[in-house]
Amino acid sequence: MKVSQLMSSSVVSVTPEDTAANAARLIARNNVGSLPVCMEDGKLRGIVTDRDIVTRCIAPESDPETTKVREIMTRGVISVPPEADIREAARIMSGEQIRRLPVTSEGKVVGMLSLGDMAKTQSFDMEASKALSEISMPPRKYGKDN
Hints:
By secondary structure, this protein is of the alpha+beta class. Helices cover about 35% and strands about 15% of the residues. The chain has helices at about 20-30, 50-60, 70, 85-95, 115-120, 125-135; strands at about 35-40, 45-50, 100-105, 110-115. The longest helix is centred in the C-terminal third of the chain and has 12 residues, at about 125-135.
């Protein structure tokens, strides 16, 4: 099965110049956990999550009405093309410990794939379950004993 068959194609996004407050309102209004950050031409530049807003804006006591998304977004976002195999997308999500994966075509966002999207399909509930389990594990710590 291909990513395009499970992804959500109605994607709400923000630009790097939007404010954290606007991103928070869009996240709440659309009941999502993250928004792709795109340029006006639709090219993916990053992703901003509800957690980014809390830890990079609210907790350090920055003003969400004036803090730009570009200041708090995660850069270097991993994405997959719509024709990617869903199992490969699950492996990426698991390996990178992410719950949502932008779907891009020629650098432009065309959808979002979440663990929830995979869990809704019985044929992929095991992959979604495994990915969630691995995502939920604390990151490995490397020390002198490892």
